[in-house]
Hints:
Number of domains: 2
Bound molecules: 5'-O-[(R)-(carboxyoxy)(hydroxy)phosphoryl]adenosine, zinc ion
Distance between the termini: 27 Å
CATH class of the largest domain: Alpha Beta
Structural class: alpha/beta
Order of helices and strands: EEEHHEHEHEEEHHHHEHEHH
Strand content: 15-25%
CATH topology of the largest domain: Nucleotidyltransferase, domain 5
CATH superfamily of the largest domain: ATPase, nucleotide binding domain
Number of helices: 11
Strand order of the largest sheet: 3-2-1-4-5
Helix content: 40-55%
Largest sheet: 5 strands, mixed
Number of strands: 10
Oligomer: single chain
CATH architecture of the largest domain: 2-Layer Sandwich
Amino acid sequence: xxxxxxxxxxxxxxCDETAAAVVKDGKEILSNLVSSQVELHARYGGVVPEIASRxxxxxxxxxxxxxxxxxxxxxxxxxAIAVAHGPGLVGALLVGVAxxxxxxxxxxxxxxxxxxxxxxxxANHLDAEEISYPAVNLIVSGGHTExxxxxxxxxxxxxxxxxxxxxxxxxxxxxxxLDLGYPGGPxxxxxxxxxxxxxxxxxxxxxxxxxxxxxxxxxxxxAVINHLHRARQRNQEVNMPDLVASFQEALVDVLVEKTIQAxxxxxxxxxxxxxxxxxxxHLRKHMAARxxxxxxxxxxxxxxPELCTDNAAMIAAAAYPRYRQKEFAGLDLNAYPGLGLG
Length: 342
Ligand code: KG4
Ligand code: ZN
């Protein structure tokens, strides 16, 4: 392959964000557009799959046009079309997959299938310096909580994952019980700044199993709900900022300590964070402080907030090594709602 720049159009429709982006050489963002459906789903307190699919359908074509225009490129300038084909909501994924297949066929461009979770890892490659390996990567999103060891790019080993709720799901469910709104993560992040994180000692599930780094957040969620019910039964005033700050502290504490233990155990050179919850200000601060005191030689990296949550630039970035390896998908590509890593 020659040294001509590689321009990839990325398409993402796995959940409630319709996104299109053009990325050069897997690193440089030329455009990155996201149409969020948050307001459509907020009144239901969570994502309604049918509404998500319909909205993707009406947004995807204009969004791709806009992403191409903003990048200043035409289809003739592209080398490939990349799309997230799982995990996610099947109807939502299918909109992106069908669009990408039609474009690849009509424009005679290679089609690249990208795992949405793997793409979250690649968010750390965008507009950023080279990563030093081995790296421990914590993916914390609405659907997933995974701790991974990346020995070298493409060689990824799962160290642990959640056994019940994902970290973002715990934020969203607690926010729903407290009537704070949807999605709960950013709202709790903000409200917690006014509270005392040590006001209530919520349980931390350490699951001390040798060699595993699994998580569990459903006990913590139940403890928050029980605390609220008890206070209401006794007609006691609930201090919301203290409650959410203490919940966030317990959840972040476990994420940070397990990541640090894994970084120690595998002598990592970097710790990376990605996924929507990696935008959490307390997690960022706490992880930086603990790493600084426990393992000061390790570099901590996380994407800017807009690249932590779902976007298509990360899809195009993850497709770049596949393009180099000529790992192309056929036009019979399907959507895989339960697609895992590895
Ligand atoms: O990665 P993402 O956009 O979608 C999935 O692939 O799931 O993550 C969305 C999740 C939601 O649960 C949302 O509440 C959470 O990320 N989130 C946050 C913050 N921003 C988004 N959680 C905590 N603090 C935040 N600042
Ligand atoms: Zn995601």
